[in-house]
Amino acid sequence: MNPSSIHVVKLNLYKYSLSLPLLRFIFIPKFPFSSSSSSSLSLSSSSSSCLQNLDQSQTNSISSSLFHLLPQTQNPNNIVNLICSNLKQHNSNLALLHTEVKALLPHLGTQEVSRVLLRCQSDSSTALSFFNWVKNDLGLRPSTQNYCIVVHTLAWSRKFSQAMKFLCELVELVKDDLPSEDVFKILVLCTEDCNWDPVVFDMLVKAYLRMGQVREGLRSFRKMLRVGFVPTVTASNCLLNGLLKLNCTDRCWEVYEEMERFGIAPNLYTFNILTHVLCKDGDTGKVNKLLEKMEEEGFDPDIVTYNTLISSYCRKGRLDDAFYLYKIMYRRGVVPDLVSYTALMNGLCKEGRVREAHQLFHRMVHRGLNPDIVTYNTLIHSYCKEGKMQESRSLLHDMIWNGISPDSFTCWVLVEGYGKEGKLLSSLNLIVELQRFGVSISQDIYCYLIAALCQENRPFAAKNLLERMTRDGHKPEFEIYNELINSFCHCDCIAEALRLKTEMLDKEIKPNLVTYGAVIDCLSGLGRSMEGESLVGEMVASGMLPDLAICRALFNGYCRENDIDKAQSLLSFFAKEFQIHDTESFNALIRITGGKGDITRALEIQDMMLKMGLLPNPLTCKYVIDGLWKARRVDSASLVK
Questions:
Q1: Which of 110, 418, 434, 610 could form a disulfide bond with 143, CB atoms 3.0-4.6 angstroms apart?
Q2: pTM as predicted
Q3: HEC-encoded secondary structure of 390-442
Q4: 592-630 per-position pLDDT tens digit
Q5: Cα 314 to the chain's mean position, in Å?
Q6: How many CB atoms lie within 10 A of CB 530?
Q7: Element (H, E) at 632
Q8: pLDDT tens, 421-452?
Q9: Rg (CA), the chain
Q10: d(CA 355, CA 396)
Q11: Are the C-beta atoms of residues 201 and 229 closer than 8 Å to each other?
C-alpha cells in the first residue's frame, strides 16, 4: 500500500470514529530519528505502565533549563539518546545498559519506550530485546502503543510468529485492564512513523479469534473494510470458523456477503465452512445451491465437503441421502476416508442397524483403512446398548490386537453394559483384564462398581475394590466411603463401618450427616445406643448438628433396650439443644408407658409436650385414653381380688 493509500485510510479512520481531541491525544507526530531530537510523543496516558503505577507526569518531556547543566548520563531529557547509543554500541548488552542508565530509569515512561522502539525499528532483534527488557526486567507494563510499534517492527521483518505472540498478549491485556483502548486505531496511527506491513491487520483479526474474542475479531474485520483495508481470504475464513463455533450462523452469512461486496475471493475452505453453517442451521435444502455456486467459482467438493454433508444427513436420520453421497464420492474420484465411514456407521447404529454398521466396518478395513478409537467405540457402544456383550468384548480384543488402547469411554460402556445385564462379576473380570493390558481405569468406573457391589450387599468385595482403586492412585471421596459404610451397616458389620469412618478422618475426609446417620442407626439397632449417642457429641464438636433421623434412631434403640428413662431424657435433650421436636417419638413413649399401666408417667410426658409447644395430635389422645383404660382395668382387677 503506497503513501497516498495510507493517507486515504487514515482519513477514513478519522471520519468514522475519531474526534480531533482524541487524535491529538494519541497521534504520533513525525520526527527525525536522530539522537538530538527533543520532540516527545503525545501518547495516551491510559496505557501507561501499570505494574509499577508510574505517574506519566514524571516521564513527560522535562523542559527545565537547568537540566542542560547536568552531565549527559544524568540528564533526564537525554534518556532516549543514551539508551539508543548504548544499544547500538554494546550490541544489546542489557546488563550494561541497565548499569549506565540506572539513575535515569525513574524517568523512563511509555513515551520514551516508544521513541526508542521507533529508532530501533530497522533492527528488529534489538527492538525486541529492549521491549522484553522493559517488560520483564524493569517490571513496567508497556502501553498499547508500545505493543503496536513492536508488532509493526516484527511484522515488517517477517517475524510473524513473534508479532502474533505480542498481538495475542495485547488483546488479552486490553480486554482485562484497558477496555476503552482500540487496538485497531492505534495500529493504524502507528503506521505514520513505523515501517509496516498490511498483514498486521489480518493478524489482529486472527489474534482476537485465537484468544476467543470472536466478536472483537468481527469488529476489527469490519473496521478494516470501513477504512479501506481488504482482509485476506485466510483471515476471513478464520473469522467464519470462529463465528461457526459460537453458533453465530447469521453473522457467518453477513461476513460472506461482505467478502463478496469487497472482492475477497472465497476459496474451497470458505465453501466448506459455509456448508457446515447450512448443516448446523438444518438448512440442507440450500446445500445444492451452495455447491453450484462453489463449482461456478471453480472448486469441486472435496472430502471435507462430503464428510460434512454425510455427517449432517446421518444426524438427521437421512441415511438414504448419506449413502447416495457415499456412492457419488466414488464416481467423482473422491475416496471416502475414516471420517466418512465412521459417520455412516454412527447413523446406522442410531437406527438400531448395528449389524449393517459392522458390515460397513469390515468393508472399510478391506479397502485399506485402519479404524481408530472413535470407530471402535461407535460399534462397541451400540452392541452394549443392545445387550450383545460378546460382540462388544470381541471388538475390544480386536482393537487391542491392532494396537489401539481403549479409552475411558470404551471401558465405561463395557462396564455399564455388563452392569445392566446383571453381570457384575464379568465387569470385575474385565477390569482385571484391561489392567493386564496396561489400560488405566478411571475413578468413575471404580465408583460405579463399588456402588453396585454395595447395592448387592457385598461390602467386603467393594472394600477390596476400594483398596485397588487407591493403589491405582485415585483418591476416593466421601460419597464412596458413605456407600461402603452404609453397606457394612446394612449387614450389621459395625466394626468395619467404624474402621472406615476412622480411615476417613485419617485421610482428612470429613464424615457428613449421612456417615454419622448410618453408623448411629446401626449401633442403635445392635443395642449399643450409648455408643451411638457418644457419636452425637463427636458430630457437634466437628460443627455438625444431628437431624430428626438420628434422634429417632437413638430413641428407638433405647426403647428396644427397654431404657425408657434414657429415651425420655434423649427427647428432652434434642428438643432443648437442637430444637428437634418429634411428636411421633413422644407418642411412642406415651404408648409404651401407658401400655405398661404407668398412666401417671404418660400424663407427665403429655405435659412435657405441651410445655415444649407441641400440640397433642389424635394419636397422642388415643394412647393416653388407652393408658387410662388399661390402668382402670388393672385397678378393677385389684379390687376384685
A1: 110
A2: 0.74
A3: HHHHHHHHHHHHCCCCCCHHHHHHHHHHHHHCCCHHHHHHHHHHHHHCCCCCC
A4: 887 777 888 888 888 888 888 878 888 878 877 877 777
A5: 29
A6: 15
A7: helix 618-640
A8: 989 999 999 999 999 888 999 999 999 999 99
A9: 40
A10: 16
A11: yes
